[in-house]
Amino acid sequence: MGVEPIEYTDHKYGVEVAVGDIKLDLAVQRAIVPARLRKLTGHFDPILLGELLVSERVDGGLYILDGQHRLRAAAERGVTTVHCEVFTGLSRSDEARLFMGRNDRANVARVDRDRNLATSGDQETLDIQMAAQAAGFVFVANNVEDSTFRDRAAGIAVMHDADRRKHIEVTGPEHLARVFTFYSRVYGNQERVESLLLKALSKIFLGKSEVDEDRLFDKLRGLPPQQISAQARQRRIDMSVTRGVSLVRAAVEVIAEQYNRGLPADSAKRIRL
Fold first, then answer.
1. Residue 88 parent element (H or E)
2. Residue range 62-100, pLDDT digits in tens
3. Cα gap 127→200, rounded to integer Å
4. Percent of the chain beyond pLDDT 90?
5. Which of 42, 46, 197, 222 lies at a 20 to 30 A Cα distance from 157?
6. Which of 113, 135, 164 is the last residue of a domain?
7. Could you give the CA distance from residue 217 to residue 49 in angstroms, rounded to a whole number?
């Protein structure tokens, strides 16, 4: 299935617009990068401004889609009007898609990319946002400092892992919500999520061994996630001599050892890898 085309009612080049009339909507734009703004302002040349990409919304407001650093630099240097490429009649979803399409994704900060993908209606991004929010985490934020979960790729990996397991009857988003909820129960939701631990917990819950969540909670709550990550890295190094293991697998083994501690070798409650 192809990508739906971006819909608009009008499109013009070379429209002269007052700098003060152009607004910013972070739902479809990246946040200002201070270092980039300082560079543009310090070496400002109005001839190099080029055309800014602007959306004229149905309420008549003009919103910058691409070129906000140039716009801010122009404003700080006293420029009153700029030339713009203006799209009329875009939905906010299509504004976000147009911004991402016009920019090299490598140059767009992760938090801005995720916010734009959510605005554009990307289903996996929305699934992650809902699962994270249900457990009290912040996935899509205006500033990276406000986000307590920043790893969209990890969220997608957890969902896809569940979707591939034929013996699991929950959907990927439901499984992700379960993992987030358990992580929040153990470590709270105010600190940034350790992605490695999130993926390892996903593997634990998807295993064929029945996991006693209360026992797992008791075994992990005194063990900081950063410590589990450090132990997993060391285990991976130690095991590399005899067998190669992924970092996630190493973290799963660390967690399983904690869970199994104190259980008889023949106990049905043990996590068996």
1. strand 81-88
2. 999 988 899 999 999 999 999 999 999 999 888 888 888
3. 20
4. 52
5. 222
6. 113
7. 56
Kindly state the tokens that stand for 134.
């249900």
CATH value at residue 48? 3.90.1530.10
- The span from the CA of 9 to the CA of 257, in Å, is 61
Question: Is the model's pTM score more than 0.85?
Answer: no
Spatial distance between the Cα atoms of 172 and 162, rounded to a whole number of angstroms? 5
Do both 86 and 137 map to the same domain?
Answer: no
Q: In this structure, which amino acid lies at residue 147?
A: S
Query: Residue 2 and residue 43: Cα distance in Å, rounded?
Result: 42
CB of 260 closer than 8 Å to CB of 271: yes
- Does residue 207 belong to any structural domain of this protein? yes
CA torsion sign, 122 to 125 to 131 to 135? negative
Task: Please report the pLDDT score of residue 27 as a whole number.
Answer: 77
Element (H, E) at 249: helix 247-260
Tell me phi and psi for residue 188, to 5 degrees: 80, 180
Domain span at residue 84 reads: 10-113
Cβ atoms within 10 Å, residue 146: 10
User: Which sign does the torsion angle of CA 7, 13, 19, 21 carry?
Assistant: negative
